[in-house]
Amino acid sequence: MSFSRQSKLEILEEKLEDANCALAFLSGLFHGAGQLSKNSEGVRVDLVTDIKEIFPYVNDIVKRLYGEELELEISDDYIINKTTYYRIMFPVGISQRVLQDCGLLESNDGSYALEYGIDLNVVCDEETQRAFVKGAFISCSTSSIRLSELGSRGASSGYHLEFASHHKELLEGLQEILGEFTIPSKLGTRKNLHILYLKDSESIKDLLALVGATQSVLDLSNEMATRGLRNIVNRQVNCINANINKTVEASLKQIQAIELINKHIGLENLPEDLQEVAVLRLANQQESMEELLKLSTIELTKSGLNHRFRRLIKIADDLKSDE
Q1: Of 214, 209, 131, 145, which Cα lies nearest the Cα of 177?
Q2: Residue 6, burial from CB neighbour count under 10 angstroms (0-12, 13-18, 19+)
């Protein structure tokens, strides 16, 4: 199960008893996933979602507030990218009233107009704000976050959560609400969609806590800790590998220089101090400078040993030039 889906299902575990909060929640759902249709019977509103589990949750709210039952429909038309979408259908008899109560339909001299911004009469305090964000989160949010499993490295590298809508007014209002809870977010566009996004892991955790996805907060915290530890280990391994590579390269260069000198003039013709380190290196070709110092009977510092090897390399370079 994806992290995004897990978070949405977790929200549905808490029942909304307060009628005002229930309406604010429905408003968030309609803003993100509502669809209007009209036939001979009148106007009907539906919710289109890939979260099938939301049906009994919404049906319970509608039964309590309007005394009506909803219908759930699935069609091949709603299978997109191997994801199945469901249509939750509201009865024609209550659709208009529900939309008005949720602040999405405004009546003016007998005519009606859809409202794309958030109705502040519906979303008027912290509790209704929280409920609205829950509805919007379920209906129009997505996340690229993938959690590590059993030490797998298949998890996503960053943290990104976004709300997408064709209506900028909705996302501007949602950004204001999140701002009141000190959750920073940014607006952008992608093709024909408006995007409200969060890329900071702490902000995403705050949003998850706001909508009541407590287990998802804990899972994300664990993921952050896992990635942090993995990054530390990777840096240490990279550092060790880099040091090993340097040691090997230095050793090869020293050995090649010593072999060249031996071939052309013989090690016995070197100054005594250089003969000693040349023989030491040839006898211990894979050892680091620190190990050579331990194996040496000569009292030398690391700097002194390096200096002697540089002299040997200089002699070998001069011999190459003479060729």
Answers
A1: 131
A2: middle
Domain boundaries along the sequence of the chain = 3-212, 243-322
Q: CB 116: neighbour CB atoms within 10 A?
A: 14
> Predicted confidence band at 151 (pLDDT cuts at 50, 70, 90)?
very low
Which runs of consecutive H residues, i.e. helices, occur in 120-213?
126-140, 168-180, 201-210
Query: Residue 77: pLDDT band by 50, 70, 90 thresholds?
Result: low
Cβ neighbours for 107, distance < 8 A, ≥ 6 positions apart: 100
**Dist CA 255 CA 309 (whole Å):** 10
Residue 32 makes CB contacts below 8 A (sequence gap 6+) with: 135, 136, 138, 139, 140, 141, 163, 165, 170
Q: Which residue has the higher pLDDT, 207 or 322?
A: 207
The structure tokens listed for 10 are: 């977790």
Is the pTM higher than 0.90? The answer reads no
Residue 201 has pLDDT above 50, yes or no: yes
Strand partners, 141: 163
* CATH number 3.30.300.20 given to 3-212: no
Please state, rounded to an integer, the average pLDDT across all residues of the chain: 85
